[in-house]
UniProtKB/TrEMBL annotation:
Coiled coil: none annotated. It catalyses: 5-amino-1-(5-phospho-beta-D-ribosyl)imidazole + S-adenosyl-L-methionine = 4-amino-2-methyl-5-(phosphooxymethyl)pyrimidine + CO + 5'-deoxyadenosine + formate + L-methionine + 3 H(+). Binds 1 [4Fe-4S] cluster per subunit. The cluster is coordinated with 3 cysteines and an exchangeable S-adenosyl-L-methionine. It comes from Clostridium cadaveris. Pathway: Cofactor biosynthesis; thiamine diphosphate biosynthesis. Catalyzes the synthesis of the hydroxymethylpyrimidine phosphate (HMP-P) moiety of thiamine from aminoimidazole ribotide (AIR) in a radical S-adenosyl-L-methionine (SAM)-dependent reaction. GO terms for molecular function: 4 iron, 4 sulfur cluster binding; phosphomethylpyrimidine synthase activity; zinc ion binding. This is Phosphomethylpyrimidine synthase. Its EC number is 4.1.99.17. The keyword Nucleus does not apply. Keywords: 4Fe-4S, Iron, Iron-sulfur, Lyase, Metal-binding, S-adenosyl-L-methionine, Thiamine biosynthesis, Zinc. Belongs to the ThiC family.
Length: 435
């Protein structure tokens, strides 16, 4: 039996090599995995031309994965720096890399990723179209937008953000319902401007069936972009956001009819008390397709610390059903992140993802924490370092303030509760000041 996409294989009962790898990584039975994939609740983004990939699954009952955004800009065009960020991100366990390059030789960078990187590779073709054609936005034709989608598919990209939910109807609702921060999505603002200048329908919406054929040919997962995601707390869960999500739900069903894998992109900036409800709305409107969120960022006043504001929102979103978190770095809203920013963003997002997996009861998620707790009980510092989410930082902190006694730390010393409880329960005398 033949198949074009992982979803089609699942619906035909074909077990692919990628499914075997994901089943083993996730400790999920093959029957359960295939069932979820056939329904569209789990996806394995894996372009047929991405030979270096180590497949991962996204969706219901699986571990929460994280994505790292990278790429060049007009002000920062150092490809070697971006390659270094990619290596650092993969070494730290990022499951996906999104190339958001908006300047320079974007195809060189993209092909390097799909030829060498084991992580899932994502792109936003609308950015690259502006760079590739190098002409006024109004002069780009509908077919040229679609041709860039095909180029990225041929280059081996595993998933693409396509801003197809902002059609003329959504744009009308956006203009009617004023926002504090308008449209903050780069892709959304570009396609909105193009629509306004040309008077034409969004080509990604109008020619969605052609995009589906491209995705089916190469097994590209569509990441349905949220052009109207809220860019501030005040704009969260407004008419534009929900109108677009309704459209994305309709497009999801059309994609599934063609066996094309889909995930839905979600908010942006959002108060904590709205996050759980938004996850439920997405599940309802999009039939529980995997949900990919940026943050959400839960307060607007922390530039320089938005890896923290997003980790708070990301943990809440994932605990309530999101399965894929896009990292946010301390540089968000300020500049292109450097390698140190990338690391801080990854660590914060990994913490959020892991905390959510524990809350969701993902199989074996808490085993890691139990091992750490046992090492702490035993005052086994080396094992604690090995189990740390950032071993280098843990070692550096302890080395920077050495205690008088090696079995304690410089905060508690002989007041160490763990040490004293171990002794008293072993029948020893505890004498804090006389040792």
């Amino acid at each position: 039996m033949e198949y074009s996409t992982q979803m089609e294989a699942a619906r035909k009962g074909i077990i692919t090599d990628e499914m075997k790898i994901v089943s083993e990584k996730e400790h999920i039975s093959m029957d359960k995995l295939i069932g979820l994939m056939a329904e569209g609740k789990v996806i394995i983004p894996c372009n047929k031309n991405h030979k270096a990939i180590s497949p991962n699954g996204l969706g219901s009952m699986l571990k929460t994965k994280i994505n790292v955004n990278l790429g060049t800009s007009r002000d920062m065009i150092d490809l070697d720096m971006e390659f270094a960020k990619v290596k650092s991100a993969v070494d730290m366990g990022a499951e996906a890399i999104m190339d958001l390059s908006s300047y320079g030789d974007t195809r060189k960078f993209r092909r390097h990723l799909t030829e060498n990187c084991p992580a899932m590779i994502g792109t936003v073709p609308i950015y690259d179209a502006v760079v590739y054609y190098h002409k006024p936005l109004i002069k780009i034709t509908s077919q040229e937008w679609i041709d860039i989608v095909r180029m990225h598919a041929e280059d081996g990209v595993d998933f693409m953000t396509i801003h197809c939910g902002i059609n003329k109807e959504t744009a009308h609702k956006f203009k009617k319902n004023k926002r504090l921060t308008n449209i903050v999505s780069r892709g959304g603002s570009i396609i909105f401007a193009w629509m306004e200048m040309t008077g034409e329908e969004n080509p990604f919406y109008e020619h969605f069936d052609e995009i589906l054929e491209i995705c089916r040919e190469y097994d590209v997962t569509l990441s349905l972009g949220d052009a109207c995601r809220p860019g501030c707390l005040k704009d969260a869960t407004d008419a534009s956001q929900i109108e677009e999500l309704i459209t994305l739900g309709e497009l999801t069903r059309r994609a599934w009819e063609k066996d094309v894998q889909i995930m839905i992109e979600g908010p942006g900036h959002m108060p904590m008390n709205q996050i759980a409800a938004n996850m439920e709305i997405q599940k309802t409107l999009c039939n529980s397709a995997p949900f990919y969120v940026l943050g959400p960022i839960v307060t607007d006043v922390a530039p320089g610390y938005d890896h923290i504001t997003s980790a708070i929102g990301g943990a809440m979103a994932a605990a309530n059903g999101a399965c894929f978190l896009c990292y946010v770095t301390p540089a968000e809203h300020l500049r292109l992140p450097d390698i140190d920013d990338v690391k801080e963003g990854i660590i914060a997002t990994k913490i959020a993802a892991h905390a959510a997996d524990i809350a969701k009861g993902v199989p074996k998620a808490m085993d890691w924490d139990n091992e750490m707790s046992l090492a702490r009980k035993k005052l086994d510092w080396e094992r604690m370092f090995e189990l740390s989410i950032d071993p280098e930082k843990a070692r550096r902190y302890r080395a920077s303030s050495k205690p008088e006694k090696e079995d304690t730390c410089s905060m508690c010393g002989n007041f160490c509760a763990v040490k004293n409880m171990n002794r008293i329960l072993d029948g020893e005398i505890v004498s804090i000041f006389d040792e």
